[in-house]
Amino acid sequence: MVRPSHRWQQAHHPYAGLVAVLATKHGKLPLIAPPIEKAVGLRVDAVAVDTDALGTFTGDIPRPGPPLETAIAKARLGMSATGHVIGLASEGSIGPDPAMPFVTADREIVVLVDDDNGIVVWEAHSSWDVVAASTSVGAGDDLGTFLAEAGFPDHQLIVRPNIGAMHPIHKGISSTEQLTAAIAECAAVAHDGLARVETDLRAHTCPSRRAVIAAAAERLAGRIAARCPACGAPGWGRIDVVLGVPCAWCGTEVARPRAEIDGCLVCEHRETRPVVSPEDHADPGECSSCNP
Ligand SMILES: [Zn+2]
Ligand SMILES: [Zn+2]
After folding, report:
1. 64-85, pLDDT tens digit by residue?
2. What is the CA(291)–ligand 1 centre distance, in A?
3. pTM of the predicted structure, to 2 decimals
4. Alpha-carbon gap, residue 31 to 207, rounded angstroms
């Protein structure tokens, strides 16, 4: 916690007219900068730092920590490269949805790190609409159905040997000629004679992911614009959820959100916001007593 400062009390947004740096190698500036500039007047410049050192989507470098920590570390890379005290970065996680393992989910986090005031503001957006296709093929196989499913060439591809060698690995493939040549080369060195072909999930080669990053940036812009009603600091919003809605039959509390708690990142101010009305009850089907 940082001490609330009189600077937050000004009528104009505390970030208006300041400059932040976005650490990105993959063309995220047009996704992240516009909503933030529009919401609070914070100008965003990009710096091309090598965020791949923090792990890559293609799996050649494992990701070091949970996505929020990785996003914060990326933002700080950009800040130390440029000397800015406000930094931005994003980080995505793409994989089977924990609740529905056959569906691929993309969760994108966008973070703002303000080391001048010691605050970190972040928001996330999740989508099931991301294209993440993969297959194993031999040289000369018909790829028509797969390429349609993979949204090729708008969505670019990665090709590598299916089993055995880790190299060669071809990224950002966007033409049939490149694809055919890469499959032939990778299949020839693979132990099983097949090439692995999959969606290149980097932001600049995967338009369906870009849409999710833009939506997360939109949320972050709203969160930065929201200021604490008590001290005026940016980043006011939901910090916790209160569970417990009474069952309609027996009154046992069911683990459903009853209220959300909004909080400040700087002072101790909190406000509880009910999300159900006091007369609302939970379906007995969800109740551990009525429907064990
Ligand atoms: Zn019940
Ligand atoms: Zn506050």
Report:
1. 678 999 999 999 999 999 999 9
2. 7
3. 0.85
4. 11
